[in-house]
Design a protein that fits this description.
106 residues; alpha+beta; Alpha-Beta Plaits; four-stranded antiparallel β-sheet; 3 helices
Length: 106
């Protein structure tokens, strides 16, 4: 995969306000072409030896591999979590028109 290949970055936020702040920052900094915010998910995970159940907000950002490190740093700088979830998934297929638009917005 080359650095200009598209990826989807999944992130969680504590609430809708934080999710909106992250999405706006990523778009203004041109670190993502599009961010979708999916409200009200329930996450169940282990944290510091304890089982945790939290209501969270899921963000799905479309970007390129070359932007991931900068996106990661920028999100960590404003995120309320000590260890925010920030993970990238490769895109197996994408329409030519959407890929052209995505790259044009980066």
């Amino acid at each position: 995969m080359t650095s200009s290949e598209p990826i989807v970055v999944l992130m969680t936020a504590a609430n809708a306000e934080e999710a909106d702040l992250i999405a706006s920052m990523l778009l203004e900094a041109r670190l993502a072409a599009c961010v979708q915010i999916l409200p009200s998910i329930k996450s169940v995970y282990r944290w510091k030896g304890e089982l945790v159940r939290e209501n969270e907000v899921l963000l799905s950002a479309k970007t390129t591999r070359e932007k991931f490190a900068e996106l990661d740093r920028a999100v960590r700088a404003i995120h309320s979590y000590e260890t925010p979830e920030i993970l990238a998934l490769p895109i197996a297929a994408i329409s030519d028109a959407y890929l052209e638009w995505l790259r044009g917005e980066m």
